[in-house]
Amino acid sequence: MPALHACLPPDGFLPLPDHGAAPSADRRVGVEVEFAGLGVAEAAEVIANTCGGRLDGPGTDEPREIHVRGSTLGDIRVELDIALKRQWAEDLAATMLGDLIPVEIITEPLSRADLPRMENLLQALVASGALGTKEKLAYGFGVHFNIELPDDDGAALIATARAYALCEDWMRRADPLDPARRVLPFVAPFPQALVAELARAEGWSAADLARAMVAHAPSRNFGLDLLPALQHLCPEALSGVPEDHLKGGRPAFHYRLPEARMGAPDWSLAYEWNRWVLIEHVATDSDLLEALAGEWPVHQGPLPGPGADWAARVEALLAASSIPARMGLDQRTPARGSD
Fold this sequence. Notes:
It is a single chain. The chain is of the alpha+beta class. It has two domains: 4-33 and 106-327, no CATH class; 37-101, no CATH class. It has twelve helices and eight strands. It has helices at residues 40-51, 87-97, 115-127, 155-174, 179-182, 192-199, 206-216, 227-233, 269-284, 286-295, 310-320, 323-327; strands at 29-35, 54-56, 65-71, 74-80, 103-107, 143-148, 224-225, 252-255. Strands 2-3-4-5-1-6-8-7 form an eight-stranded antiparallel sheet. Strand 3 (65-71) and strand 4 (74-80) form a beta hairpin. Helix 4 (155-174) packs across helix 9. It is globular and about 60 Å long.
């Protein structure tokens, strides 16, 4: 039987699950994609040619930022992804590092129905010369999803944080990050101390989660950045987080783990989206979530026994759960390449 990751469809965006009484059909997602090979102006032209809209930006040969207004995907910001404290430092970095500093496109919140158009836009960018992470050894580009929270009381945030923390090792082993991206500080795994707290986190409030982040992971540089949502729900509980990691609250999961493997075979935006959908399914399955939480401490002891590979155990628990059927996954035939 192929690994569950290999069964995720690369050519269709699966729906998010409902979280109890909180429906997900109307939840929206902002998308950020990094790449090389095109300048800001070139990328903006491709967007306007593909999605319509008008260009709004400085009339210079090498602009740092352009907005494409009124496209079929709404307003899209195109920028050189560099944010230092001084303009002269940005100029120096851009000159010295060249295409190691990616161009980034940032959308408004989109509906799930919009996501295939976003996939088409990425294909158009690749056809025009955009390069993803796999094109050079030193590239480490990412895709970020900003997925609206399904509720505003923190229950879904906590359940999803627990699901992600307990499944993260499996996700990283099932589809390892490119070495160039793995060494960057932006997508570190959750510290084990935080995972241990989350395994015991049944009944937590958003403030409890915030206090755990302050104690064990006061940073936004994780595969799942929880700080924007926590700053939205309980900003007073984040007083121990460095100010430069608090960029403003918003009611969204900031999922940073995916790579921008644009142009690579067997990769698509849909595949990365569907990995997130799977995590939300884990969050909505209370029995599975508690099974994962209950078994996690056993696999972290100093003397692991037979079958103590946590990633393999997560794979087994997920495959035996109702999630593959609920997601419509065919576990007999891989939907994409599998090692």
